Amino acid sequence: MAEVTLEQAPQAVKDLFNKGFSAFERGNLDYAIDLLLQCVEMEPGLLRARKFLRGAQVQRLKRQKPTALSSIINQITGLPLVVKAMLLTQAGKGGKAVVAAEKLLCKDPLNINFLHVFADAADKAGLPETAIQTLEIARDHFPDNAKVLLWLGDLYVEAGATKDGLACFEKLAKLKPQDPEVVRKLKDAMALNSMAKDGWTEAADTGGTFREMVRDTEEAVTLEREAKAVKSDRDADSLIANALAKIEAEPENINYYRSLARLYTQKHAYDEAVQTLERALEISPGDPELDQLMAGVRTEQYDHRIAELRSAGDSAGAEEAEAERKAFVEQSLVERIKRYPNDLRLRYELGVALFNKQQYNEAIQQFQLSQRSPKHRAKSLYYLAMGFKTKGQYDLALEQLEAAAAEMPTMDNAKKDVIYEMGQLAETTGDTAKAAEYYKTIYQVDIGYKDIAEKIENLYKQAQ
């Protein structure tokens, strides 16, 4: 089975990859894994998708902080898939075997037995680069595993990467110095590597795919690093040049435009970032993620300008820029809601902007919609309550706050704010007994919260 590049993949697979890659960049690992798994099921030879799938799987596993018990459970529940993959491999059904083995790695991408099953299936399916990629992960986490080193060394040598193969056999020789097979393989790898250095052999004909993969095995990590603060102008210039080269090679790949725009933003080259995103929107008009990124870049540009003005002592200029920023943010939200009326996050953000402008009726309308979003429900209910409170509709405000409190399982600051407001409303309506109940709930866990100690003391005095 031949390796497949992204350019060779069907359009449906390309679309899935781009969405999965974007989810990976944003840290939405479950969604990324789901999309990228569909990619490799539809196109088993798409090494690029499998690479980012593996990166997402490993990151998710680290987030979950696996225990010995969870590893044992994964081992047991994965047994049916292990048997299925091995039987398919033995039957010569390589593509199906790889798909089955991939599902094992979704359970635990660092399980040494699962890695062995997958690498064997990939190797037998004629996907040596995929097998190498997976065994490299195994070696990184199990550096002294002799079976992994031996298998990986053989695959490197077969692929023409004699230097990498030699490194595997040198490490293996330290672990098993008396093993005649290891000694023989080490000598063979040394000879092949020497010949390659002297130019006696030609590079393996892998169509560039394997060499590209070896150079690019840390691309997922690089992308994550790019999304963080750039350490120096030199680093930024290098990453920008790399991103521009990728765009030139794949001018339709929207992900590269996103990365380039972020790099420009980190360097405070906001005009270049905006121009990059405008080009991306020409390729992919109506892309909500690009729209969001564009709004973020423009907002950060305002923030940077405001900071510069304040640093220069120009308070009037800074205030004017802050007013422009607020107007831009609100207008941007209004325009994007017109394009994406069902985006509840935008509804919530517009509601906050309107609330801060004291346009309470308009804000309430947005929060009544955004409360349907599980992520923004509790905050929307809180703002709804504050809106009703400003209108003197205390009963409606209390209902919203009670609903918000019920959505919050942990007594964090957000829940304290909600309960505190419930106490305030109770005081306003003259129900001091009820107010005391609310305030006590906070007082018992955080005596230093706002003026809660003073509130409790005053209420106790009134009761005497």
What would your notes on this structure say?
The protein is mainly α and 464 residues long. Among the domains are: 1-141, Serine Threonine Protein Phosphatase 5, Tetratricopeptide repeat (Alpha Horseshoe), CATH 1.25.40; 143-203, no CATH class; 219-340, Tetratricopeptide repeat domain (Serine Threonine Protein Phosphatase 5, Tetratricopeptide repeat). Helices cover 77% and strands 0% of the residues. The protein contains 25 helices and no strands. It has helices at 11-26, 29-42, 47-64, 68-77, 79-90, 94-107, 112-124, 128-141, 146-159, 162-175, 180-197, 209-215, 219-226, 233-249, 254-266, 270-283, 288-311, 315-339, 344-356, 360-370, 377-390, 394-406, 413-428, 432-443, 452-463.
What's the SSE pattern? Answer: HHHHHHHHHHHHHHHHHHHHHHHHH
Helix amount, in percent?
over 70%
What is the number of strand segments? 0
End-to-end gap:
85 Å
Major β-sheet, in short? none
Discrete helix count? 25
Structural class: mainly alpha
Uncertain ranges = 198-231
CATH class of the domain at 1-141: Mainly Alpha
**Rg from Cα:** 29 Å
Beta content comes to: under 5%
Inertia-based shape = elongated
User: What is the residue-mean pLDDT, rounded to a whole number?
Assistant: 82
Second-tier CATH architecture of the domain at 1-141: Alpha Horseshoe
- Looking at the structure, the CATH topology of the domain at 1-141 is Serine Threonine Protein Phosphatase 5, Tetratricopeptide repeat
